[in-house]
Amino acid sequence: GDSVTQMEGPVTLSEEAFLTINCTYTATGYPSLFWYVQYPGEGLQLLLKATKADDKGSNKGFEATYRKETTSFHLEKGSVQVSDSAVYFCALNDSWGKLQFGAGTQVVVTP
Amino acid sequence: GAVVSQHPSRVICKSGTSVKIECRSLDFQATTMFWYRQFPKQSLMLMATSNEGSKATYEQGVEKDKFLINHASLTLSTLTVTSAHPEDSSFYICSASSLGNQPQHFGDGTRLSIL
Fold it and tell me: Which of A34, A101, A103 has the CB atom closest to B103's CB atom?
């Protein structure tokens, strides 16, 4: 079945560093891809999405490009802030319309 | 953006109590709502999918008599954990989406602790 694999955390960075979180997927069709962010004690917030190959999703300085050839949707941010500390989930919509999540990557940004 | 309200945010109760969690879409009609369970430092596990006016579809291994789901309107779904026990303690999160391939919007979750 459809699945998502993302890099393990925690990822610890200094403020203003460059962030990359790798995400690859396996799917039988052409799913939509998402990045969600979860702050401590809260639910998930949609960070960005892409619905077809070569689409780039972007929001709050984060970007991810839907790469069909490498089945990837890596998340990047050029200069992180302490407030970006959270758990990030890569996800896809499977053929049943359900979200399949990766395991989540904790990001810790230190001042 | 779309807002989903989940209530209560935290519940602490004795073993054997039934607990109801509400999930409301505040500014859109949610034809489909989802209920997830999340264990510490883990990803979300889908428990069930509910469509307005019909019975919920439960994922394999989820007891439908234990976790009662009602989706009575396009803005409200409820999850009732019946006769809760300590092993039911977890973080429960709902999400909602409107028609088509729209993204799910999540509530802030409910921390359930059974003593």
Answer: A34
Among B22, B92, B104, B110, the residue to mutate for chain A (most A Cβ within 10 A): B104
* Cβ atoms of residues B114 and B10 within 8 Å: no
Q: Check if B109 contacts A (Cβ < 8 Å).
A: yes
Q: Output the pLDDT for position A102.
A: 94
- Rg for chain A (alpha carbons), in Å? 13
Q: What is the pLDDT along chain B (115 residues), one digit of tens a residue?
A: 668 999 999 999 999 999 999 999 998 888 899 999 998 888 899 999 998 888 899 999 999 999 999 988 889 999 999 999 999 999 999 999 887 667 889 999 999 999 9
How far apart are alpha carbons A99 and B44 in whole angstroms? 10
Cα torsion at A68, A74, A76, A81 (round to 10°)?
A: 150
Q: Provide, as residue numbers in chain B, all residues whose Cβ is less than 8 Å from the Cβ of A97.
A: 32, 101
Phi/psi zone of residue B72: left (φ > 0), alpha (ψ -120 to 50 degrees), beta?
alpha
Who among B43, B49, B101 is closest to A89 (CB)? B43
Candidates A39, A55, A101: best to mutate against B (most CBs of B within 10 A) is A101
Q: For B106, which residue in chain A has the nearest alpha carbon?
A: A44
pLDDT per position as a tens digit, A10-69: 999 999 999 999 999 999 888 999 999 999 888 899 999 999 999 999 999 999 999 999
Distance of alpha carbon B40 from alpha carbon B44, whole angstroms: 10
